[in-house]
Amino acid sequence: MKTLTNKNVILGVSGSIAAYKAPDIVRRLQDLGAEVRVVLTQSGSQFVTELSLQVTSKNKVHHNLWDKEAELSMGHIELAKWADAILIAPASANTIANLALGKANDLLSSVVLANDCPLLIAPAMNQQMYRADSVQENLNTLIRQQATIIQPESGEQACGDIGEGRLAESVDIAQQVSMLFQSTKLSGKKVLITLGATIEAIDPVRFLSNHSSGKMGSALSDACIEAGAQVTLIHGNIGINLNPKATAISAMSAEQMYQAVMSNIAGQDIFIACAAVSDYCIKNVEKNKIKKLNENLILELTPTKDILKKVCQLTQKPICIGFAAETQNLTENAKNKLKNKGCDAIILNDVSKPDFGFKSDKNEVLFLTTKNSQKIEKNSKQKIARKIIDVLTEKFL
Ligand SMILES: Cc1cc2nc3c(=O)[nH]c(=O)nc-3n(C[C@H](O)[C@H](O)[C@H](O)COP(=O)(O)O)c2cc1C
Q: Which residue stretches belong to region Phosphopantothenate--cysteine ligase (predicted)?
């Protein structure tokens, strides 16, 4: 897996002569696995065409804050939420000044203001402009606001001057973006995650199951790996590919999942129970296919083992995080689950809504502990997973 796989990067291109290099920056980001969307300022479009950026990024180029169609769904906010990182390359002196002042007078500055994701700025300008006190002061303001400045290079410039201000090389810029995601928050930690839906046999051809896709657990596995953890995944039925850096163990029924978890729990630092495990299984599984008769059929169900509760009861228990998929009395049910299972936190998701939760690529969750709760707003499961890992490390490590 590449360092920017599953990462969404907005590339802001402003009005510097170096904007002609922007399509190459798009390509270098894609080489590392990123999905790129470009926001082009009006001045930027004087130096590079929208078409070349559209072709390289394979996405529509955004340039207009007043795009009526896009703004029907508050396009600039949607775009900001989509991004895992915003890179401005090249960044003109004017755009740098706008950002330092917190202005929102065009699409690029509005998108930057509407996002709390990492911001990287690669200045490119004449050496005299770059040395100007105002430009340096603006860059320092942005550094204080946690932006990363990708230092320009020294050398001969388009205007014939020699000095510092040339845009950094495209591959170095892409590399700096990828370094953002190489966190060490969970380095040296072992994480065990269950995911997907369990399957309970009724007879050799039929089963009881649920709608869980495994997407949330898989996003959590990516986020843990990104943060440096060693991840083991115990999965039921899933419709997705898992991160090859994780050790994957298949366990289809609740009983098999219980056995797999118990055999692998020793030495784990964190246990995340994300699988949708059946609460019941069939008491007597038929050896042969049940034939259709013209009368009611009663299946007797018996409770399965409570995997999360059993792990929480271990003497050397890891940090235990459970998921609660609820459709009613959400917080109350989640609080009860937190108490009954004895786990450290419950991540509550409302699975009654069609646009997120089960099967969907999006989610919205509440991270609940005995002391407090923290809402993680609707976003892609990848971004929700990274936020969950941030909250988890803040609270427990
Ligand atoms: C030919 C030409 C080249 C320019 N090159 C740069 C440059 O390399 N860096 C810069 O900061 N501004 C440069 N400018 C000035 C910016 O294009 C100008 O400040 C513009 O307002 C920037 O708008 P933006 O920040 O919204 O993209 C150049 C202008 C012209 C006409």
A: 191-397
Mean of pLDDT values over 108-136: 95
**Mutation pick for ligand 1 pocket among 11, 39, 62, 94 (CB with most ligand atoms within 8 Å):** 94
Structure tokens at 75: 């396009």
How many angstroms does the Cα of residue 92 sit away from the middle of ligand 1? 6
CA distance 278 to 291: 25
**Residue 18 and residue 121 in one domain:** yes
For 204, the token pair is 């050799």
Counting DSSP H helices and E strands in the chain, the numbers are 14, 19
> Which residue lies with its CA nearest to atom 22 of ligand 1?
15
Q: Are residues 290 and 222 in the same domain?
A: yes
Provide the terminal-to-terminal Cα distance of the chain, rounded to the nearest Å: 27
| CA-93 nearest atom, ligand 1 | 11
User: 320 catalytic, yes or no?
Assistant: no
CB atoms within 10 A of CB 354: 9
pLDDT tens figures, 205-224: 999 999 999 999 999 999 99
CA 22 to chain centre: 25
Please write the tens of the pLDDT for every residue from 376-391: 988 889 889 999 999 9
DSSP conformational letter for 35? E
Q: Domain containing 103 — which CATH number?
A: 3.40.50.1950
